[in-house]
Structures are given as structure tokens and as C-alpha cells.
Amino acid sequence: MKLKKIMKSIGILLLLLILFIFLNNSNWFQKNDQAKPKLLAHVGMAQTYPMDGITGETCTAKRIFEPEHSYIGNTIPSMEAAFEHEADIVELDVHPTTDGEFAVFHDWTLECRTDGAGVTREHTMEELKNLDIGYGYTADGGETYPFRGKGVGLMPTLKEVLTHFRNKPFLINIKSNDPEEGKKLADYLSNIPGINMEQLSAYGGNKPIQVLQEELPNLRVMSMETLKSCLKSYMGMGWTGYVPSSCKDTQVHIPENVAPWLWGFPNKFQDRMEAVNTRVVLVAGEGKWSEGFDDKGDVKRIPEGYDGYVWTNRVDVLAPLIKE
């Protein structure tokens, strides 16, 4: 009889624990039908391409869809267009140059998109300004090049972007894992007069991001290391409502296939992250190769009531579907 009582007590405790976990992470009482996702526009407005078969060596400019607009990503006109289409943040890519600038450009090398050659960061900014960054784009296997001749001088410096868009939010992508680049970027940002550091965030290699965080502690940063540390800790302890210190004052990019495994996702998870000054960005699929929510079908997969950020390559398409 005594054993039965003990087993019964254990059973009741387990049921109470399960009930606590369920109620503590349920979104039933937090649903907000008026909540709308915010839009993170990848490189502004850009030419898109099919994601199938993409590798780190793929020249995506050689496989674009038939152009539906005239913008080239990572340029000031493309960012103006993104903000006009109600982007909440624009993501951009940077490379240091040999003359102390930071060029806003995606690729590690120049051959894919431009009429130049070599490693991007092994050039001066003046040399990069002389390139045609629309040179390599083609939608028909090289029969036509619709942007050739239209991209000369369009590669901006990071300073030009940040001074052109005062008080606009940007997510800066560091393309290397060189710690020295983190120091260079910290010094560079600190010497641009009048910029609002609170509007900026950065992500990239573990080493430069660590240095950048040490140099600019008020800047929200993320690397694969900080992301994994946050998510692993949260998966272990988040059922209690506790948010680990590794999840505080940062940014988390949540792949769509990982999101359902996070305690309280979407609403309670989002509220918990907001409470510790962390930005949540939902990315499509497995989060590889800048997969985004880019069309009407993709919008249907965004959880109802989610009001964090979604990564998109087609802010012009998504904004009318979400914001109106």
C-alpha cells in the first residue's frame, strides 16, 4: 500500500509538471490577431534566383529569374526602394578595402557580378567604384545581360549608406572570420559622425563579432557561436520561462524548421526575447543561402500572431501581403 501511495504521488507530481510546462509555454492566452511580422529586406531590393542546387561556389548572378524590377542589391537605390516598400530593416554586406574603407558588396571575389577580377578586399575603394556591378547578371544563360553598363559607380561605401539613411536600421554582415576586421569595423563606425548606433546590428564570423562586441558593447551582434549558445541553452531551460544570459542583448535568426521546437514559439518566445532586448528573425527553410519568405505561399507558413522579423528577398511582394 505504501508503494502504491508513493507511485500515486509521483504520478500526480508528473501530471502537475506537465500541466505547468504546457500552460507556461502555451500561446492560447497570448494570441494577437492584429500582430504583424516586421520585414528584414536582404540587401534591399535585389534580383532573385532559384535556391535549388546552391553551393558556396555558385554564381547566383548567372541564374537570376527574369527581372521584375531594375534594382541591384547592396546599392543605395535598392535600399531606398526597400524602405519605400516598408522594410523595417535592410541587411547589407561589407568588405574592408586596402585604403581603409568598407565596401558594400556581397561576394568575396569580383568575377561573378562585375567586370573586375580578384578578391574584393584586395582593392581600393576607388578601384571598386570604377566597376560595373551589374555586368554579370543574366536570366537566359548568357544570351542577354540586362544590367550590363548600368552598375558603374554603384558600389557604395558603408559610410555613404549610413549617412544617406540617417536613423534607418541596418543589419551589417561581416563576410570573414578575421578578428582584425571586427576591430576595423568598430573604429570605422565610431568615426562616422551623427550615426545612431542603436539602429545598427551586425552578424558574421565568430572572431570578428566577438571583437566588435568588446569594442562596441551597445551594438547588437550575432554569430553562429552566439546563436547556438542561446538556442541550446534555451531549449534546455526555456520550459521554465527562464531566458539564459546567452540570449540577452543579441539577435537570433531562427530557421523555420527549428522554430516549432522552441519553448513558447511564437508569441511567448518572442515576448521573452523582447524582454531581454533580443531581436528575433525568422528565416525560411533551414536558413541556408539567404532563404526568405518571398511570395504568397511563403506567407502562409508564417505563424499566426508572430510579430518578430521575417527575412525576405522580395520586400516589394511581401509588404502588401503582410502590412496592408
Compact overview of the structure:
InterPro entries: GP_PDE_dom, PLC-like_Pdiesterase_TIM-brl. The chain is of the alpha/beta class and 324 residues long.
Please give the structural blueprint.
Blueprint: H1 2-25, E1 38-42, H2 76-84, E2 89-96, E3 102-104, H3 125-129, H4 158-164, E4 170-174, H5 179-190, E5 200-204, H6 206-215, E6 220-223, H7 224-237, E7 251-255, H8 267-275, E8 279-283, H9 296-299, E9 309-312, H10 315-323
Parallel strand pairs: 1-2, 1-9, 2-4, 4-5, 5-6, 7-8, 8-9
Antiparallel strand pairs: 2-3
Describe the structure.
The protein has 324 residues and is of the alpha/beta class. The protein has a single domain, classed as Phosphatidylinositol (PI) phosphodiesterase (TIM Barrel, Alpha-Beta Barrel), CATH 3.20.20. 32% of the residues lie in helices and 14% in strands. Strands 1, 2, 3, 4, 5, 6, 7, 8 and 9 form a 9-stranded mixed β-sheet that branches. A hairpin with a 5-residue loop joins strand 2 and strand 3. The longest helix is centred in the N-terminal third of the chain and has 24 residues, at 2-25. The radius of gyration is 22 Å and the shape is elongated. Pfam families: GDPD.
